[in-house]
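Hi R.,

Here's the chain you asked about this morning:
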Amino acid sequence: MNGKLRDESIDRLFRGILSLETLEECYNFFEDICTVAEIKSLAQRLQVAGMLERGKTYTDICEATGVSTATISRVNRCLEYGSDGYKLILDRLADYDHKNSDNS
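And the predicted structure, written out as tokens:
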């Protein structure tokens, strides 16, 4: 993690997030700590990362999500040169989706 970002208060925030146990708890916490627009923006970035990983073009992503090319570029830069946080989450979500589709 970027040393400029890491500090005790952010560690505490992340530990708090890791303590959440259900989707409902996540909704409750994030509704309290973020604005609706911030939550939607975070979700949109994850959606963009998934679309980039699936080989979608910037044009396809803009049309499907309404995000700017600047946002897409930022997410793409993180996928290419970042800390692999998006990749970790996308892999885990794919595993989750796969396991849950088998139980249907």
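Residues 36-53 form the longest helix (18 residues).

Let me know if you need anything else.
M.
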